[in-house]
Design goal:
single chain; 157 residues; alpha+beta; seven-stranded mixed sheet; 3 helices; globular
Amino acid sequence: MSDLPSISVSVKAAIIHDGKILLLSYDDSADGGCFHYNLPGGKAIEGESLRDAVVRKVRQETGLAVRTVRSMFVVEYVPGQFGKDLGPQHKTQHNFLAELTDGRTQPEFSDPRDPIQVGFEWVPLDQLTTKTLIPQVAPAILAALAEARDVLVDRAQ
């Protein structure tokens, strides 16, 4: 029997406010990458629920307080199937709809700051597909927003 694969588990938050979604902007063109956007989030810690990871990572990356509303979709990256474009690690990215909880809407850079992050942008939902997201999840975000069901079965609720 072969060893089980090591899979990196990350979470992302689609934070919607006044018809806009919060995106973080990055410029890693100096390292051969490109200017792109992403949802706030990051890796879950072993033993941490996905919903708790969303709250923690959004606070770390933006300073904003959120609660998860529902799971939206999962992106799976298997390096052998994608030419290792996003590295050699097998990954899952769990995307959640989240809402602000304390009325603050102005994000702040983390400390220490991610060296390739250059800003934040509240993007109107009808312009989301014009932005370069990595991974390219804009259509999945819009489809999930149109469907109001939570697909994550957990013990958090």
